[in-house]
Fold this protein.
Amino acid sequence: MCGIIGYVGEKDCVSILLNGLKRLEYRGYDSSGIAVLNKEDNRNEISMVKRVGNLKKLEKALSKKEMKGSLGIGHTRWATHGKPHRLNAHPHLDCKNEILLVHNGIIENWGPLKNELISRGHKFISETDTEVLVHLVEDYYNGDLVKAVRKALSKVEGSYAIVVMSKKSPNQLVGARQDSPLVVGLGNGENYLASDIPAVLEHTNKFLIIEQGEIANITKDKVEIYDRNEKLVNKSPFETNWDISSAEKEGYEDFMLKEIMEQSIAVRETYRSHVYKYKISLDESNLPIDIIKNIKKIFIVACGTSLHAGYVVKGVVERFARIPVDVEIASEFRYKDPIIPNPSLVIAISQSGETIDTIAAIREAKRKNAWILTISNVMESSAVRESDGAVYTFAGPEIGVAASKTHTAQIMICYLLSLYLAKVRGEITSAETAYYLNILKEVPSKIKSVLDNHSKIKELANIYYKFPDFIFIGRKYGFPAVMEGALKLKEISYIHAEAYPAGEMKHGPIALVGENCPVVAIADDSSVYNKILGNISEVKARNAPVVALTTIGNEKIKNLVDHVIEVPKIPEEFSAIINVVPLQLFAYEIAKKLGCNVDQPRNLAKTVTVE
Ligand code: F6R
């Protein structure tokens, strides 16, 4: 996730772009850049500044540089393809240094396109997927920037919001959008393009939304928007009454809710950046094929929510790749003198990549000669730097302390990694891989349908918020999701909650159950459905109120339990990524009902860099 902005007008726009980027910094902050075109005395001069690090670095660099221009674009980056580096920062330039482009999204077919463009003589300077776009526009530019952008975009697959400017069209910006947001801000004698409303809210409250597949051609006093069929679209602007702080949350009450709602996008971007034409690419992992083929054991090291993703890895890697997996609490790992057979793969999962316990576990595993792979949401994080390879989730920055979208993105990576290992080890065929990838491709829309059910989950929370204790139960693939559901509830609502494998209840925890201790059970379509029904009957017999998470269409279970949360059907191996979402919403709504600060729960920090 990145933030993009563009300005066309008569003012000197450097500070307008910089301030806009500051409002977009929540979308990414590993590098940034601004380019402007100075048209004074017809000199048509481009100046550009890029810096690695947060926007303070860019601001400092700009303060030292004479830079003027009334046409400009800016970008704040969350690295996806290519590490945070000045050459990978946007804007990107064509070979003649005339066309400039900023991009938010992922171009899936950038590899073949890059090879093709290189064979036609284009020179690339970055490792990004984005750079292909600007070279394509260069190829098609024939005096009409809109046409060139349209043609370039017809070649790409993936997601994008872009803003393009050219020295040769000094009074014009072109924007386009597919699966990444883009708005037009309407000013007086000036216009803006931006990833979202807050970026330009201090200059205007009138906006147009660019819809899927549309292209916007913008000058200081004209906005034209074309649909996919090159037809002009007539749009009426709307006025927003947002203030700046609510706008950063895009209208949501908290970052956590916004991030929960962003999950279908986070999961889709994570899938898209690793899958192209039914092939899983984990190139950045550097995982040697001979290691994959000979691994004796996999260890997962992680903490908290990331540890729960580890339990998902265990389920799917053992199922598909048939490699034994141990899930290890990172803070314990280094103290137990772990026995690590050779060759072993240690997978560290950490959204921040800065959790000290996980880093210490990585060091311990390294000392014992394991091959270390980190799954992280942050490129160049400490965990990534200390590992032999890394695979990234593309969830964008997460601001709420309690993890949500980074977790479902981690689960998507777990699925892809397990299929990749299985394929390399010959446990599944290409056809089977394609079959499973087709299922995973549908996950974002299934998550969206769960999110669309938000109001029903809120109604349930309004009933259940009064209980002091909860027990969450699940079996097999259902267990990691209930562990996460219980953690979410306790950390943001301060209600005591425990998760148990349902069959374990009778060995002790069932003593807690009664009318004051509700049970949340995962009872979706699965090979253990009848078993869990038995476990639900056991707690019902002890008067526990029961909420069952069940597959849409299961009417029968409604006679057994008090309330149901319906989830779309998916093969059981991949159910965790769906089932965890309503549990996040359930915890969120209970916490809100209790008046808790969900973005900053007491005693917790987003990144735990102390032991
Ligand atoms: C809970 C939560 C924490 C983190 C844990 C590890 O909502 O966010 O449990 O999952 O502190 O953090 P990372 O993944 O950054 O290593």
Summary: The pocket of fructose -6-phosphate is lined by residues 303-306, 350-352, 355, 358, 402-403, 491, 607-608 (CB under 6 Å). DSSP finds 20 helices and 26 strands in the chain. The chain has a mean pLDDT of 94.
